[in-house]
Amino acid sequence: MAAVLVTAWSGAMLIAQGQKISTPEELDKAMKRVGQGQQNMNKALKSGAFADVRTGLTEMRQALADSESFWTLHKKDDAIKAVKDTVSKLDLAIKAAAGDAPDAAALQTAVREATMTCRNCHMTYRAQDADKNYILKPGTIGG
Questions:
Q1: CATH code assigned to 20-136
Q2: In the chain, where are the structural domains located?
Q3: Residue 5's pLDDT is what?
Q4: Reduced to 3 states, what is the DSSP secondary structure of residue 19?
Q5: Nearest to 61 by CA among 89, 35, 90, 82
């Protein structure tokens, strides 16, 4: 029984730590998860479904936090800082979304500030392909 509990606990810890991202393809998947979380959050925000707002923000936060390993591997200190700043601002947005009837203005401000840090990183590291999908800007990580 103890072995089963230790195994279950270890698996939970790995999930809680997030995924290690090392390739541009894995980064792209993580950024798509951020985008999907943002779409879900925006839809929920418009309808006042604050539990769903928190879920979308949490999805964004986790996917973005997962991407830090990519930037660390590629020694991009400015991107690491951007990830940490954005995660911190998403934490503030999640906190602002707490409760059944959060202050909508404070929540919108927190969301806007978080998405501005996303935009700043996109200016440096992201580009759009011919289909308007975001990709890692060619040449930004060498190789």
A1: 1.20.120.10
A2: 20-136
A3: 37
A4: coil
A5: 90
